[in-house]
Each structure stands twice: as structure tokens, then as C-alpha cells.
Design goal:
Distance between the termini: 17 Å
Order of helices and strands: EHEEEEEEHEHEHEHEHEHEHHEH
Largest sheet: 8 strands, parallel
Shape: elongated
Strand order of the largest sheet: 13-12-11-10-9-8-7-14
Bound molecules: phosphoenolpyruvate, manganese (II) ion
């Protein structure tokens, strides 16, 4: 339920609405828009009957039922797109951002070589797995803390903010200590304990869509992060399981467009895991940008055939540079500048307070 206050509502009116919401065991979420204050109420029901009396409360302009169960992630509570800041990189504005790097951090040389190359090609952020969620327990599981330290070194050398996956609640603190953005992988999208734990950090979060998750389930996972107090959530479509077996996953581009209709959160696309084939990464990338994705996350390795994970879907350094050159992206993507904050990217007055 969403309560819209009149532009003439007093502080006392607003406080009374908040009090009534709390007295009925719902949680108030106050937003200042350019015109007025809107207050969302979350609780066991989307449209609590107990709060009907608010329609007659002083200063209330209207009370609106919500159509979706993910109130905080929805455009119903916040109609303007959210912009998530990772260091100096802004995700969610009109300019797509490119995150690139190896599937797994394998060595200092592999990571630093890749980091310098993707930066030179115009990437805005560096990725690299330290803790790897592998299907087989016998496959490379990641270098853990050593990889986190290498990622921090690569960030210090290149200036590229770093995103890396956290797979366990036990690792959240240490990953948050080294990384600029925490990735929740597809397999953990509905690990609610992990979502709660990551929500409690102040780090931006990259929430991948589960391989078999519906759009609603994906946005409800995002709602866990938002309700847990972390507003810096970016969604990532990475392909879903279908009857198709030739491709690793099926890239659901309509979901990207649909999620942008339903939610104010930025959405990026991972064409590497979505296809599983490096030959398809360029076309899947272009399609993702065409459908309105706010960015891409692409796996890049100096020698993909020798990669310890996901070699078949990784671009080599040259192919990544060629792909970047083919994008119609603004000049800041090329060379050693970032997607630097501009005044219009600053959090708007309408952000949750
Ligand atoms: C990854 O980004 O390396 C990864 C494991 O992705 P996903 O969770 O989408 O499979
Ligand atoms: Mn991978």
C-alpha cells in the first residue's frame, strides 16, 4: 500500500501516518519526491485492510493499493530509475557500463594483465571470482582470500572498481572489506540468509537472476536486499534454464525490458553465462544494449583455452577490445577515464529516507 501525502501536509500529518502504519505492525518507507511525500507500507499483506482509515487522516491526498508484492523494488513506490554508484561508476543512467574480467582469479599475472587490458579497451569495472560456486566439487573452487587481495591490487593499479561473488554468509565481511560491489550469484539468488547478510553491508550489490527464477522471484529477492536496508541493488540477467541444450542458458531479453517496466532498479546483462559460447557474446551484448540494459558483464581471459573456469565463453583480450570498439558508447568509455559522476547522477531527493 502507498500513501501519498498532500504537498501541503505538515510534519505532524506525516508523523501521524507513520505512527498508524507502525501501530498496525507494518513498516513505513518514506520517500520525498519533488512534489510531495509518499509513504509505502510493507508487511504480511501487500494491501493491508487495517490501514484503510489512513484515507481520512489529515494531509493524506490518496491511498493506493499496490499490484506487485515487491513494493520497494517497484515503480509504484519509485517511478524514476535508480542510479547505483560503485566508486565513481554510476549504473542506471542513460550510459551503459561495461564490467569485464576473468571468470576466476587464477594468478597475479592473469588478473593484472586482464585488468590493464580491459581498462585500456574502455571497461568501467573489473570482475573476477574469488569464491567460485562450481557444479562439481572437484572443479577449481577459487583462490579465496588470495584472490580478494589480488583484486584489491588490480583496483589500486587501474582505478577500476571491483565486483566479486560472495557465496557464503561466513565470507560476507571479508569480501566486503576488499570488494567495491558484492555479487550474489545465480545459484544463491534465493539464499535468503545470504541476502539478509549482504543487505546489512553498505556495499552495492549485483543480484544475478537464478537459472530457474521467474521475474517475480527475482524481484522479491531484490526486495530482501532493499527491505534489509541496502538501496544499492543492480540486477543481472544471465540466462535461464529452458529445454534448449545447445546453449548453456537461454538469454531472456524480454525479462530485461519487463523488469525495467516493473522496477526502478538498474538491470545489466551477462552475455557470457547466458550463451556459454564466446562466438555469441558480441551479438548477445548488442541485443542486450538494444533492449535497454544499463550495462554488460563480460568474461575476459588472456588465454581462454587455459582458463580454470568458463574458458569456452571467455573472450581473449583482443576480441574484447574489438567488441568494445564496435559499441556506440560515449568517449568516456575509452582510455583511462571512468563514468564520472555528474550532478544529475546524484541521488535524487526521492530516494528512500
Ligand atoms: C559468475 O559470474 O562467474 C557466475 C558464477 O555467474 P552465475 O552466478 O550467473 O552462474
Ligand atoms: Mn563464469
Amino acid at each position: 500500500m502507498i500513501v501519498s501525502m498532500s504537498p501541503r501536509a505538515t510534519e505532524e500529518d506525516v508523523n501521524q501516518v507513520i505512527k498508524t502504519i507502525r501501530e498496525n505492525d507494518y513498516l513505513p518507507h518514506v520517500r520525498k519526491t519533488r512534489f510531495n511525500i509518499v509513504i509505502g507500507a510493507t508487511g504480511p499483506q501487500t494491501n493491508p485492510r487495517e490501514l484503510e482509515s489512513l484515507r481520512r487522516s489529515p494531509g493524506v491526498a490518496g491511498v493506493q493499493s499496490t499490484t506487485q508484492p515487491f513494493l520497494l523494488a517497484s515503480r509504484e513506490l519509485k517511478s524514476t530509475p535508480s542510479i547505483v554508484h560503485v566508486g565513481k561508476v554510476a549504473i542506471g543512467n542513460a550510459t551503459a557500463i561495461i564490467i569485464a574480467g576473468p571468470c576466476s582469479v587464477e594468478s597475479r599475472d592473469q588478473l593484472l594483465t586482464t585488468a590493464h587490458a580491459v581498462k585500456a579497451a574502455g571497461a568501467s569495472m573489473l570482475r573476477g571470482g574469488a569464491y567460485k560456486p562450481r557444479t562439481s566439487p572437484y572443479d577449481f573452487q577459487g583462490l579465496g582470500l588470495d584472490a580478494l587481495k589480488l583484486l584489491a591490487e588490480a583496483r589500486d593499479e587501474t582505478g577500476l572498481p571491483v565486483v566479486t561473488e560472495v557465496i557464503s554468509t561466513a565470507d560476507v565481511d571479508v569480501v566486503a572489506q576488499y570488494a567495491d560491489m558484492l555479487q550474489i550469484g545465480a545459484r544463491n539468488m534465493q539464499n535468503f540468509a545470504l541476502l539478509r547478510c549482504v543487505a546489512a553491508t553498505e556495499k552495492p550489490v549485483l543480484l544475478k537472476r537464478g537459472p530457474s527464477a521467474s521475474i517475480k522471484e527475482w524481484l522479491l529477492a531484490a526486495e530482501y536486499l532493499l527491505a534489509g536496508g541496502n538501496q544499492n541493488v543492480v540486477l543481472c540477467e544471465r540466462g535461464i534454464k529452458t529445454f534448449e541444450t545447445d546453449l548453456r542458458n537461454t538469454l531472456d531479453l524480454a525479462a530485461v525490458a519487463r523488469v525495467k517496466e516493473l522496477s526502478h532498479l538498474p538491470v545489466i546483462v551477462d552475455p557470457s553465462h547466458a550463451t556459454g559460447r564466446r562466438s555469441l557474446v558480441p551479438s548477445a551484448s548488442r541485443a542486450a544494449l538494444a533492449v535497454g540494459a544499463n550495462g554488460l558483464m563480460i568474461e575476459v581471459h588472456p588465454n581462454p583455452t587455459a582458463a580454470l573456469s568458463d574458458g569456452p565463453q571467455s573472450l581473449d583480450l583482443q576480441d574484447f577490445a574489438s567488441l568494445m570498439a564496435s559499441f556506440d558508447l560515449p568517449a568516456w568509455h575509452v582510455g583511462d577515464t571512468h563514468n564520472t559522476l555528474t550532478e544529475s547522477d546524484q541521488p535524487e531527493a526521492g530516494d528512500l529516507i
